[in-house]
């Protein structure tokens, strides 16, 4: 809300500041109502999402440097295959046995991300879940599925070993700030509306 030194109705900026103090309850109550509404809406619409990761190592167990370089180059393809239907479908089938789980295979696949540290043979599998336990369980199921089915997709894959399993206690809440951000936004907007309401009320009384 832009203000000059005085309004068209003759209300000076100094008088308006005095009005903010005199009618403090107007802008305070307005701000509190809007803030509470934003908090309640954020809590109602925010579905907790947790992230967990597991790691598989894909390599040929020999000391041939050429083979190692080939394995490193192949990791880019393995990253893509880890999200393929042949690998994700078995995970989905196991998760459907979990009480309360209703996610689709598309949702499951969309929540999977993969990464490979430079010049390594370690494929990190990161997944999402509605609870720390579910996120960890999904990550471990995906690692197991990669271990079982990747050699079927790529016969010359070599050895696929699970080198790190996910644990619920290490799962990370990835959208924990959403409610706080919505509440802060509600507070700022509520203050704006409160100041505007005070201004209108003051001019009206004049």
Summarize the structure in words:
The structure is a single chain. 56% of the residues lie in helices and 15% in strands. The protein has helices at 13-22, 24-45, 65-81, 85-95, 105-110, 132-153, 178-205, and strands spanning 50-59, 113-116, 122-129, 159-164, 172-173. Strands 1, 2, 3, 4 and 5 form a five-stranded antiparallel sheet that branches. Strand 2 (113-116) and strand 3 form a beta hairpin. The relative contact order is 0.22. The model is unreliable at 1-9 (pLDDT under 50).
Low-confidence stretches: 1-9
Shape: elongated
Largest beta-sheet details: 5 strands, antiparallel
Measured by DSSP, the beta-strand proportion falls in 5-15%
- Count of alpha/pi helices: 7
Helix content: 55-70%
Structural class comes to alpha+beta
> What number is the mean pLDDT?
87
Q: Compute the separation of the termini in Å.
A: 20 Å
Provide the fold topology.
Elements: H1 13-22, H2 24-45, E1 50-59, H3 65-81, H4 85-95, H5 105-110, E2 113-116, E3 122-129, H6 132-153, E4 159-164, E5 172-173, H7 178-205
Antiparallel strand pairs: 1-3, 1-4, 1-5, 2-3
Helix pairs in contact: 2-7, 4-6
Concise account of the structure shown:
By secondary structure, the chain is an alpha+beta fold.
Task: Please describe the structure with a list of short key phrases separated by commas or semicolons.
206 residues; 7 helices; disordered N terminus; alpha+beta; 5-stranded antiparallel β-sheet
